[in-house]
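Chain particulars:
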Amino acid sequence: MSFAPALRAEWIKIRTLRPLLWGLLAIILATVVFSALAGLDDSDGPDFDPLFSTFFGVTFGQIAAITFGAQAVSAEYQSGALRVSLAAVPDRGRWFLAKTVAIGVPALGIGLVTGLLSLVVGTSVLGSRADALTWTAELRGVVGCAVYLSLMALFAAGLAAVLRSGVATLSTLIPFLLIVSFVVGSSSGGVADFLPDKAGQTVLHASWDGALGPWSGLAVTALWTAAALGAGAWSVRRRDA
């Protein structure tokens, strides 16, 4: 089977599996709701960042994104589904590429919708406190939100291909994102700037003083994602289905 039919088959899986569709919807809901709640905090100190406050919900939306990516891959290891997929697409590399494209493209599209809604809702809640934001910063936030969420979904997909379990993947990533990353960030100096979440979220800040800027931070997250996908591709090629 060539790449186009393989991609079509993977897209059919994405849009017909209800948990995956709910996962995409959860990205929007979690991000927008928590962005709105962050805007309700009327603190306006010297460290206040109106752009990050507008997109604060990404901290929680990324959990939905990695859940979507992990479930999309781990579903293949349930009830021998992977053997059926590989019978239809014997080229394992081609199959895994189709799988990652089928995950990354809708995640990017949903990320753009999420970014736009977060911008509208977040700035509305902030009111006059958002007046300092320029249109270039707002555009960077929307695009950065979309790219970051799609990268995190693909990062989880690559890890799920290695661990072969959605539960194991989420048990690894969620504590890391919600606990370990914050602990390391407060005690390790500049090392934390290169963690996948810390690096990528730099694009959502109006200003930054770390080692990375907005786009170089996303590039670091992209390198983490590429490494995870590379390990996932190796696992799919070398291990039994």
Notes: The mean pLDDT is 89. Residues 92-126 form the longest helix (35 residues).
